[in-house]
Amino acid sequence: MAARAAALLAAILLGALGAARRADAAIGVNWGTVSSHRAPPGVVVDLMRANRISKVKLFDADPGVLRALAGSGIQVMVGVTNGELASIAGSQAAADAWVAQNVSRYVGRGGVDIRYIAVGNEPFLTSYQGQFESYIIPAMTNIQQSLVKANLASYVKLVVPCNADAYESASVPSQGVFRAELTQIMTQLAAFLSSSGAPFIVNIYPFLSLYQNSDFPQDYAFFEGSTHPLVDGPNVYYNAFDGNFDTLVSALGKIGYGNLPIAIGEIGWPTEGAPSANLTAARAFNQGLINRITSNKGTPLRPGVPPADVYLFSLLDEEQKSILPGNFERHWGIFSFDGQAKYPLNLGLGNSVLKNAKEVPYLPSRWCVANPARNLDSVSDHMKLACSMADCTTLYYGGSCYGIGQKGNVSYAFNSYYQQQKQDPNSCDFGGLGLRKPRCSFIVLEAARRAGSSCRRSKRGRMSPSAAVPASSTGTLK
């Protein structure tokens, strides 16, 4: 099926695709929505526009999000989810319906500027054990035909965001190759991308390299130079990004597509959930990355040629994401879930600092804390319930609230659940161990948010248990 699809795809490209204009390189963002406190899409679009962000990558094709993007001038990448790949790969009618529902209905004058369709999200990830590989080329073939029918094939490009584990090297970037089992499909994918003028999209995470390997040099993850540079013949690598990028360049060269444009689909640094995940590190990495990209220095194998585009991961925190990769997974945003900047950052887009979201709808200032009149010996089951639904990751090792004590942990967990349940009075009972409060005088929440920390230390230098109430509590979205 894949071979016939590849042949048909080549015919479509030769017969129907014109030379589509290439968008200028820029810093864009990923906008994920795995959150129980989702800011209204219109507020998020206004936030992007206020910060002059002109490119956004979505992980699906949410109608509310796309309607909010209409007329914004922001260039959009919509996504076919991995769960949709099989049906689209097996049915042209399904592909036609997907394009009609998620692309055609939104484009046009005053509509959504959809430039890319991401066919799957990291479908070649090793942990998927090949379950999506056979669907990619057939799905792309069918979607391409659908775009041709809709007269959109010369404008909307198909791409496949790949994880960096699709390629590997024995030691240095020049030895980069694709995983053996992916060589054939990567050659087909590169041929398609080259014919259509689309970039190869890769997600690169130096943070994960540092997190997963205790021997990884910390300074090599950043952009200020390294005391452990990697020497590869005449080329010297001082940061993990350049080394990873050029490993992909080498891998593409070995299948005959060494000049294929490369865009970075995801890259960033989390602010919570691991010892190396904090505001200082996140700011240093993201600002270093932006400065590196906008300097147009390129990499040793592509000097003077920066990536086609770079999409920061991510725009907002997503407190309902799976934490199987780590507790940090919910804390990648450069903004908190309600659009408040976590730290100063110059995106290189015209504003020297980030601007906060405006007109954010909040719930009233109410909290749920541990009842000081009750013994907490029987609280463990209630804690498990609260943290199974709400986000308690800042309480764990590497989080900003780690080590605040039992009462602090209980108050944080109870309140997180209470806010997640939209302040339903019944959600603060916990067998009589919870207590609703109309105000929280122990912390200045606005100051806590500006400081980017969920937990605040008292003047005596000790953490107040009530300071375990999340800084976002009064900022819980309606």
Question: How does this structure look, described?
Answer:
- The protein has helices at 2-16, 41-50, 63-69, 85-90, 92-104, 133-149, 183-196, 206-212, 240-254, 279-294, 380-389, 406-420, 445-451; strands at 27-31, 55-58, 75-80, 113-119, 157-159, 162-163, 167-168, 177-178, 200-203, 230-232, 235-237, 262-267, 298-299, 302-303, 310-312, 367-370, 434-437.
- A nine-stranded parallel sheet has the order 5-4-3-2-1-15-12-9-6.
- The protein is 32% helix and 13% strand.
- Helix 1 (2-16) runs parallel beside helix 7, helix 5 (92-104) crosses helix 6 and helix 11 crosses helix 12.
- The protein has 13 helices and 17 strands.
- The radius of gyration is 24 Å and the shape is globular.
- It has two domains: 2-330, TIM Barrel, CATH 3.20.20.80; 367-475, no CATH class.
- The protein has 478 residues and is α/β, with parallel strands linked by helices.
